[in-house]
## 1
Amino acid sequence: MEYVSTRGSAPALNFEAATLAGLASDGGLYVPREWPRFSAEDIAGMAGLPYAALAQRIMQPFVGDCLTPERLLELTTEAYGRFAHNAVTPLKQLDEQQWLLELFHGPTLAFKDVALQLLGLLFEEFLGRGGDPLTIVGATSGDTGSAAIDAVAGRARVDIFMLHPKGRVSDVQRRQMTTVLAPNVHNIAIEGTFDDAQAMVKRMFNDSAMTSRFSIGAVNSINWARLMAQVVYYFAAALQLGAPHRKVAFAVPTGNFGDVFAGYVAAQMGLPIERLIVATNVNDILHRALSTGDYSAGTVTPTAAPSMDIQVSSNFERLLFDVGGRDGAALAAQMAGFEASKAMQLTNQQREGAARLFTSHRADPDQMTQAIRWAWDASGELLDPHTAIGLHAARAAGIDPEVPVVTLATAHPAKFRDAVERATGQRPTLPTRIGDLFEREERLVELPGDYAAIADYIAKHAVARG
Ligand SMILES: *Cc1c(COP(=O)(O)O)cnc(C)c1O
């Protein structure tokens, strides 16, 4: 399988090179040249497979001959063996129509582990084949950072520099990053928002002073391998609910549009999906873009769901590319306009293409709280704020009652226990596997939200190319 850039001018790469490159050299994102397709019989034949085996089946066409099927299965078995639930991503029923897909049974309690545990192993595998040591530079609104750090801490030939917006992540999120003391882990708290951090990371990929000295890699969902790994649980859930013979809708709490784009990929591969419901909080650029075509970034409002406090959604570019006729040059011009003015209008082709599968809903803080209370009353389930926003959208979307609606439960409620306690009066307890988090020593540096200061810090601490 070959990967092409959404902006049309970077070289096409194979899976291994695209995984190590992260962002394309023209500023675009890598996408497969075409979508692999499974027939209804292929999908029916996946029913009942263990998660690791299903993951190998779904991902092999994307990986191509960069990994043998046997090797890929070893890696998926190792990655998903670290989850605290044997089903890896179990499904729970809330009422006749509503379901939860629990994606938080990995080591750091959010869905990011599903992709990043595998990505850590892929990095190790590919770096073991030679080439330069990898300098991972990432931005996190909280969950990517801890999941990526857990996945690469202590591994050979890789350093990780993780930027988080100071004071805008929860205590649990921060401590899950800063208490990992492995020498290859560097936590940087910056003044500013997640969008500021993300913009600096993207800038570094296009800064030749840095890229000539360091081989810079990505763990954010600009890295294709992350999205690929997330496609698997859409199949896993739909198979349990009767696919390919019955359609399923998904509601996805959305920030960078990575998780829900993986659902779009599953649909392109042949999974019968009725609707993808994009759920946003009051930082609603995606809701506005999908409902009116207006993709314009406002200022970020901090909320109880910080992983969705995003105004610029990197992966939306992958959707615009695919539904807009895959015209890299036209999209490069459109994105240049957005980068200059922080606003753009979707073309009719893009709007119509997106509307075939996507709808969107926005939840304000009251609606989020009501969704937590509803789930608690209906079924005794405690939801984290992100999942609650997803469930609000799931129930508001007006899906045909015959169609099951699966909300992606993206974080464990204990990761956001203060917000959950405010809504329900119940304080979720931290699972025992991370129980002593508040006794551990923290290590981090604080830097201004200034590109030069951050580049300088990384240049002083990273291992240069050979
Ligand atoms: C990252 C994250 C999201 C948003 O996912 P995207 O792929 O960025 O859309 C939602 N909820 C939680 C808990 C997250 O960590």
## 2
Amino acid sequence: MTYTPPTAPRRTSDERRAEILAAPGFGNHFTDYMAHQRWTVGEGWSSGEVLPYGPLNIEPASAVLHYAQEIFEGLKAFRHADGSVWTFRPDMNALRFQRSAERLALPPLSTEDFIASLEAVVQADEPWVPGGGEKSLYLRPFMFANENFLGVRASHTVDFYTIASPAGDYFPRGVQPLTVWISPDYARAGRGGTGFAKCGGNYASSLEGKNSAVGQGADEVMFLDSETHTFIDELSGMNVFVLHSDGRLVTPQLTGSILPGVTRDSILELAPDHGLTPVEERIDIHRLAEDIASGEVLEMFAAGTAAVINPIGKLASEQGEWTIGDGGSGETTMALRRILTDLQYGRIADDRGWMHRLV
Ligand SMILES: *Cc1c(COP(=O)(O)O)cnc(C)c1O
């Protein structure tokens, strides 16, 4: 599939872009262009076009505004020292996008078309890919029902866009140990629900849990399973890992209510190279609290594309507080973070063929 390149000029001046790239924050600024494909029932996917980034013309009756038939992805484009631009395991995101689409009754988009959209945007917006440091260009493919119809059924018209946003640190304080509040009442997703799909609705239902965590002075919320409220699912947008003193690196097994993170999968695969034993199993929150208190748990961290790997310094709940290790950034946590970012920025060899060149 080939994209028609943009014809419209850039909307952002070179000076303004340089100013934004100096301190991009996260998700605040958007590039000059976006990629678009439309699907219609009977006809399938249109060819791709690169359009100027700008408002969409959506009618008030558009299905997505009422029934939230929407999915998205999140990846980053990294500039390497030689100026080339790469992304990390985009085939994994494409596959997850297909699984999310199926769950939300949206049409599947081929891996080829998914990756073509990333290439189209990053090629058009190449000057927006920051260089140096730990900055990147965050890529946000998303698909939504866009039929003007208020009945409840899968939409006959669907739009797929990819937009881009220069990114610095995800958390405003940079890489600092997080305090995580264990939600006493909310769950993120239930069995048979949409927990494994990357859909906007999951985030809508996580917001109040996150709000109450912030109200408790925490940075993030941890959701437990909806049935027994005993086992860890994940944070609002990141998977969770626990490092034990015997070298086991444990993350909750995928039960359907947990988002299968690409970062999570990559950490599990890299762990043995670094003397760690990756384990996927259910994590009982009471047992975890005991293991933290006894010193058996050495480190905890959160993992996702946006924040990469971020240490968790403390858990808190209505029952008390548990400081992990000395509450600081764990050594293994920061080493894993460095390995992953070194790989993504091309500073170490890509033995597994995980990197995909975009420009
Ligand atoms: C995207 C996401 C993650 C992290 O997935 P990555 O592929 O590693 O970015 C974790 N949890 C939720 C709920 C997410 O939406």
